[in-house]
Amino acid sequence: MRIYTDEIINAVCLHIAERKGVSPTDVEVQLSWEEQYGFTAEVWVSGRSQYLVEANLLEAIEQYLHKQYQLRKFRSQITLDADEEFWADIED
Length: 92
Hints:
Layout lengths: L1 E3 H16 L6 E8 L3 E8 L2 E5 L1 H16 L8 E5 L3 E5 L2
Antiparallel strand pairs: 1-6, 2-3, 3-4, 5-6
Helix pairs in contact: 1-2
Protein name: YxcD family protein
InterPro entries: Uncharacterised_YxcD
Pfam family, one: DUF2653
């Protein structure tokens, strides 16, 4: 299974919204990849920003898969990758 940029962003929005007690529409996310830091995301909620590292992104995807697809996957089964678009491969 593979999910792409939009679903990864949705996963992060839902995850952060739940943690911060806000609506998912109040969360903005920008994904990035840098050689030094790997996969990260900058997240804005109520005018404040924070950075998420790859482990945070994997946690958000793990929760998203469980809630949206009823799939119980672990972070070790999720691999992030990117070229022109971001995607996450999920092992069966």
